[in-house]
Specification:
70% helix, single chain, mainly alpha
Length: 149
């Protein structure tokens, strides 16, 4: 594999940076701070300062994560040995991840209100903890499948 980057590589690198920047902005509601809902001059100034800071942080995040993802995929070590696999855990893992994600979102939607009683907050924490445990187990299975010793 050539160590030089082609024009296609640079284009993919920029696309990955822009995608990570957009994802960061979308997760943070594009820097709109809804906690400061009053229209006082001080809160409006804080909102604009937060938005500027958030957009700048999305640029830094986009450059870092986009570059990290691109370089990890572009310069990964490719094995020359072809082994036969008995079971493809990728299909199993992808199905489990999709079903788990849909179930997590479905069960979490009623609990996303800011006026939650403590019991509902506890239940939400339990649901998220179970989902994280399942994601951890899925990661271990995929790791063991692709990085056999």
């Amino acid at each position: 594999m050539s160590q030089r980057l082609s024009k296609k590589d640079y284009a993919l690198w920029i696309i990955s940076i822009l995608a990570m920047c957009f994802i960061f902005l979308a997760v943070g509601n594009f820097g709109n701070l809804t906690a400061l809902s009053s229209a006082s001059p001080i809160s409006l100034a804080e909102k604009s300062l937060f938005r500027i800071t958030y957009i700048a942080a999305s640029g830094v995040f986009g450059i870092f994560m986009g570059s990290l993802i691109f370089l990890a995929l572009r310069f990964r070590e490719k094995s020359e040995i072809i082994t036969q696999r008995k079971t493809d855990y990728t299909a199993i893992g992808l199905g489990v991840a999709i079903v788990t994600g849909i179930a997590l979102v479905w069960f979490s939607l009623p609990y996303l209100s800011p006026n939650l009683p403590l019991v509902l907050q506890f239940n939400t924490g339990i649901l998220l903890s179970m989902a994280m445990f399942l994601l951890f187990a899925l990661t271990i299975v995929l790791y063991k499948e692709y990085y056999k010793e």
